[in-house]
Fold this sequence. Notes:
The protein has helices spanning 6-27, 33-41, 49-52, 97-116, 128-147, 157-160, 200-219, 231-247, and strands spanning 59-62, 66-68, 71-80, 83-91, 162-165, 177-183, 186-194. By secondary structure, the protein is α+β, with helices and mostly antiparallel strands.
Amino acid sequence: MRKSHPVRRAVLATAATVSGIVLLLSLKPASDPGSAEAAGGAPPAAESVQGGARPIGDGTVTGDAARTQYGAVQVRLTVSGGRITKAEAVQAPKGGQSDQVTSNAVPRLNQAAVQAQSADIDAVSGATYTSAGYKESLQSALDKARASAPADTGGGDAAQARTVTGEAAQTQYGPVQVRITVSGGKLTKAEAVQAPKGGQSDQVTSNAVPKLNQAAVQAGTADIDAVSGATYTSAGYKESLQSALDKAGG
């Protein structure tokens, strides 16, 4: 038999080794746990309130009063760390059978709001109107809380700006409710989210409220003068303004 040349045997052995390495590489999985984690397999960051919507600002905020067939419903939220920590109804239907319905429904709605961290909560059986009003006011409070969330998280006074709404003050001509914006410990904006309306009240309100807003910012307190011809509106404004300042920490 003819013997193979030593050089030829070495070349064949090298070729076989290379082929084996290529085969092993072709059988390696396309990915492994380590590469999957590096590519984004780590757990996602916690979402903000309502599935990744804009965060809500810390503090206490009161939603607009929602009118129902049996009376107004108004919800106030306490927010800490971007989460609802407390929900309460500052207004709810009362008198007669409404007292029983309210005492049964409101605690459940408060608890549901904190658990859901949104206005997407179930109505309480037997309290359809109260539940609908509660959800409407709750959504209003959440919207206000989001509006007060700082857009700049880089620190400084801008990051500390927040909006607080005072309690609605009842007057002879209707409720007055004031919302303020505080930044760097100073009152930077004041506005009336509720004011008397209808008939002559429209003219009184349109004349008085801008003056009261300006006076509040200039004074930085609720110690402001009443607007001539708008005694009741001015008194309600000052009362609600003081409530907002108290919530904001003075």
